[in-house]
Amino acid sequence: MIVGLTGGIGSGKSSAADVFKDLGIDVVNADQIAREVVKPGTEALLTIRRHFGDQVLSGDELDRARLREIIFQSPSEKAWLESLLHPIIRKEMLARLAVTTSPYAILEAPLLFENNLEEFCHRTILIDVSVPVQIKRTATRDNTSDEKVKAIIQSQMPREEKLRKADYIVNNEEDRDALKAQVLRLDQILRLMAANSEFL
Q: Which of 39, 73, 80, 145 fits a 20 to 30 Å CA distance from 101?
């Protein structure tokens, strides 16, 4: 059974994923794979360099901030990049999910719904916080302005739509203990569901 785990920026999705890991659940992180497929020497990075030039490199590495800047301003360049990377990321993601051994597996992806990754999941979990909390947490964590955080939030699917789509919602407005308690309850539900094949 594959369970999608998502949440907007600053929601605490990674903290929830850590709790699942502590419970012995295998977690496949889409963001981590996205970073790995453009490491120095990969075919994807060579293709990106041919398309955008050396301006998107910092030494041998991909300059993510510069690339983000370019595609943020150009929908056509964003579409080009996505058409290159999404199939590579999906293939690797599915390969890793296929070899997980825990009672169920978590697919951690910030853009789960935006990139239609829920089609690979039997159930989905949304880590949810209000927009003001998202802005405050992210601005503090990343030492950035509220305006920049707001721009990122606006580029993602609206909170209301994610709330409609998710099978389970974890409210993370409080502290880590409250988050952990909710994840523990969900883990029990998901283990039972996986054991009884109720997800099929």
A: 39
- The pTM for the full model equals 0.90
Tens digits of residue pLDDT in 23-33: 999 999 999 99
Beta strands, E only, the chain: 2-6, 26-29, 57-58, 61-62, 105-108, 123-128, 168-171
pLDDT tens digits along 53-71: 999 999 999 999 899 889 9
User: Distance between CA 35 and CA 79 in Å, rounded?
Assistant: 18
Q: Give the 3-state secondary structure of residue 125.
A: strand
Distance of CA 158 to CAs 75, 120, 130, Å? 19, 21, 11
Token pair listed for 184: 């523990």
Pick from 51, 85, 88: nearest CA to 70? 51
